[in-house]
Amino acid sequence: MTNFFLKPALGADGAPVLVRDPETHVPLSALGEWKQAVPYWMRRLRDGDVIDATPVADAVDRPRKRRPEPTAD
Fold it and tell me: How many helices (H) and strands (E) does the chain have?
């Protein structure tokens, strides 16, 4: 089955539209999530509740900078 990256569309007030996952009932993250191309998500896309987006690299995927070790004075 095909997967695609979805983000909630912006509402009239500029805030992301609240769209819940039909299985978990958890709202779709404003940063976007990978979802399967099932009829529910296809309807949300067609109705304009979500947009097909390009994923942004997660903070976990980026190399972390090490903090300097504290020095004992």
Answer: 1, 3
pLDDT in tens, 38-60: 999 999 999 999 999 998 875 44
CB 47 within 8 A of CB 6: no
Residue 49 or residue 71, greater confidence: 49
Contact present, 6 and 45 (Cβ < 8 Å): yes
Phi, psi of 58 (to 5 degrees): -70, 155
CB 53 within 8 A of CB 5: yes
**What's the predicted TM-score (pTM) here?**
0.72
Task: Render 39-53 in DSSP notation, one character per residue.
Answer: HHHHHHHHHTSEEE-
Q: Could you give the CA distance from residue 73 to residue 8 in angstroms, rounded to a whole number?
A: 51
